[in-house]
């Protein structure tokens, strides 16, 4: 009996000692438009949980992913969701820059022989950040098509990072701004470790000019909205400059 009580005390000690960030983080998926979903995964810093967005695009030839989930475990959850709900193979993943919230699950995809494409600069930067090696042959700035779905990966200039790409879906008028674009509820610019604050405003203006028909903007973190997210990002940049 004493040994049983001792075991229970040990169990309770470790149960209470497990920090919140050690608990399982579960991917969330929400429909954004016909055949397009936002996948949201999570990372924990300083005891706080932060969401990170990517896209799932279904086509007649298979699924296109925009960014992996945040880490390998949640990327496995992402692939399981696609298999269970769409019952289609993932044909390709585009990663928008060399940070772990964009491509932290690259190994999971590559183990399943799923091509992971990026810009040449992202492929150059990723190994130095222990993020593996994506295929650098992504046709940046050119309209492409997969299974009838048009898309364009575009580099508007440095901002959040030197290599931040966006992806535009003309049929749905969706702009995936990634971490270059802040959500409308954001109160600051977030992680500035690799930021180019001088070029960032012009990169946002470039998006406004190139994609004037945009109806939905998907930021790297936080809720989706309309093009007001672009205006809000410019406002945050102005506020930061005045500090």
From TrEMBL:
First-listed, main subcellular location of the protein, grouped into a coarse class: periplasm
GO-annotated biological processes: antibiotic catabolic process; response to antibiotic
Cofactor(s) named in the record: Zn(2+)
Signal peptide stretch: 1-22
Reaction(s) catalysed by this chain's protein: a beta-lactam + H2O = a substituted beta-amino acid
EC number(s) recorded for this UniProt protein: 3.5.2.6
Class of this enzyme: hydrolase
Gene Ontology molecular function, alphabetical: beta-lactamase activity; zinc ion binding
Pfam families: Lactamase_B
NCBIfam families documented for this protein: bla_class_B_core, bla_subclass_B1
Protein name: beta-lactamase
UniProt source species: Pontibacter qinzhouensis
Taxonomy of the source species: Bacteria, Pseudomonadati, Bacteroidota, Cytophagia, Cytophagales
